[in-house]
């Protein structure tokens, strides 16, 4: 893959864009502003991933040497200029849509830079920052389609599940993080406490997520697909409680991401607007 595409972590950026399109499906609003909001989220998420690799190049040389910067396919300066340029274009487009989205894009960008430079090595505050930004993605889409309340519900669940995944990722990365003097949750409180907290976030999100059906946000078609995701999340919770090894943490991190993708399908399939299109 082209290193300038790879450093964006297109999988993450596309997932973030899907969150915007899910809000469009739920609201039934597919406007040019929504498309532009999706472009902003792709650019800003990609920029966040790039600046993260810029600041992480020493840790990544230990944990993930195949990434574009440690592998020498992108220079350190090139990654910085590329990331700042992507942030700038995303923020300009966001302000062109409206003031609120511009302010959110600007503040999210600054928080991602602050996270990548300082917060990520801090116990829990780094996880809270990334999880907040991930949840904010839905709200960004909710503002673009004027469905803010629903977007906050979905953003809350994205926050909970990302908290779980970030803690599991810190368990996986703790050797390299230790080298850099990071004080992440597993380094400060150990794997046992970290696995309990990650499992708690997964269980709370899974057990309460059907409420979106009972609240009338989604139709009954939401439930069977959500059930598949819940099985994955609860299995992941049990697994990380049993085995906190770096190898299993890596597996569970990927499994949670699979569960997130299935949840996206549940949100789409459960959207009354989608069925109204099919029934017409
Ligand atoms: C039970 C329930 C309703 C759960 C909801 C879970 C859900 C729908 C989460 C959505 C999360 C989301 C919008 C993700 C988009 C982009 C993303 C993956 C953000 C977080 O990534 C940061 C992470 O540290 C990147 O690391 P990696 O994936 O290993 O490159
Ligand atoms: C609301 C707007 C305008 C955008 C939202 C942007 C989104 C979805 C942000 C979600 C969080 C995200 C994708 C941040 C990018 C930075 C990043 C990859 C953090 C995780 O990095 P590390 O903690 O170093 O983990 P890695 O080992 O994967 O590098
Ligand atoms: Mg990193």
TrEMBL record:
User: Might you give the EC number(s) for this enzyme?
Assistant: 2.5.1.42
Give the protein's cofactors: Mg(2+)
Indicate the principal place this protein occupies in or around the cell: membrane
The membrane-topology field of this record reads: Multi-pass membrane protein
Q: Which UniProt keywords apply?
A: Cell membrane, Lipid biosynthesis, Lipid metabolism, Magnesium, Membrane, Phospholipid biosynthesis, Phospholipid metabolism, Transferase, Transmembrane, Transmembrane helix
Alphabetized InterPro entries for the sequence:
DGGGP_synth, Prenyltransferase_related, UbiA_prenyltransferase, UbiA_sf
Its annotated pathway reads:
Membrane lipid metabolism; glycerophospholipid metabolism
Per the record, the domain of life is Archaea
User: What sort of enzyme, by top EC class, is this?
Assistant: transferase
MF terms in GO: geranylgeranylglycerol-phosphate geranylgeranyltransferase activity; magnesium ion binding
BP GO annotations: glycerophospholipid biosynthetic process
HAMAP family, alphabetized: DGGGP_synth
Q: Which PANTHER family match?
A: CHLOROPHYLL SYNTHASE, CHLOROPHYLL SYNTHASE, CHLOROPLASTIC
Q: Which family does it belong to?
A: Belongs to the UbiA prenyltransferase family. DGGGP synthase subfamily.
The name on file for this protein is Digeranylgeranylglyceryl phosphate synthase
The organism is Methanobacterium formicicum
């Amino acid at each position: 893959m082209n290193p300038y595409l790879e450093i964006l972590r297109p999988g993450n950026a596309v997932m973030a864009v899907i969150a915007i399109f899910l809000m469009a499906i739920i609201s039934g609003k597919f406007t040019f502003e929504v498309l532009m909001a999706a472009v902003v989220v792709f650019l800003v998420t990609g920029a966040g991933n790039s600046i993260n690799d810029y600041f992480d190049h020493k840790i990544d040389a230990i944990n993930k040497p195949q990434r574009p910067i440690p592998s020498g396919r992108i220079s350190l300066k090139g990654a910085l200029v590329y990331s700042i340029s992507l942030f700038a274009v995303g923020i300009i487009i966001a302000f062109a849509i409206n003031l609120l989205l511009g302010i959110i894009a600007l503040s999210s960008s600054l928080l991602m830079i602050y996270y990548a430079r300082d917060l990520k090595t801090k116990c829990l505050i780094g996880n809270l920052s990334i999880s907040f930004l991930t949840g904010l993605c839905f709200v960004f889409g909710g503002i673009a389609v004027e469905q803010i309340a629903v977007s906050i519900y979905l953003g809350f669940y994205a926050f909970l599940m990302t908290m779980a995944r970030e803690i599991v990722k810190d368990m996986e990365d703790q050797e390299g993080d230790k080298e850099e003097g990071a004080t992440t949750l597993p380094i400060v409180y150990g794997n046992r406490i970290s696995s309990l907290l990650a499992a708690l976030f997964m269980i709370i999100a899974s057990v309460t997520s059907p409420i979106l059906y009972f609240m009338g946000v989604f139709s009954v078609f939401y439930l069977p697909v959500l059930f598949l995701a819940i099985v994955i999340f609860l299995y992941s919770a049990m697994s990380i409680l049993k085995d906190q090894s770096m190898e299993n943490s890596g597996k569970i991190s990927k499994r949670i991401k699979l569960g997130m993708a299935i949840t996206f399908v549940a949100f789409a399939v459960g959207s009354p607007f989608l069925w109204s299109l099919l029934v017409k």
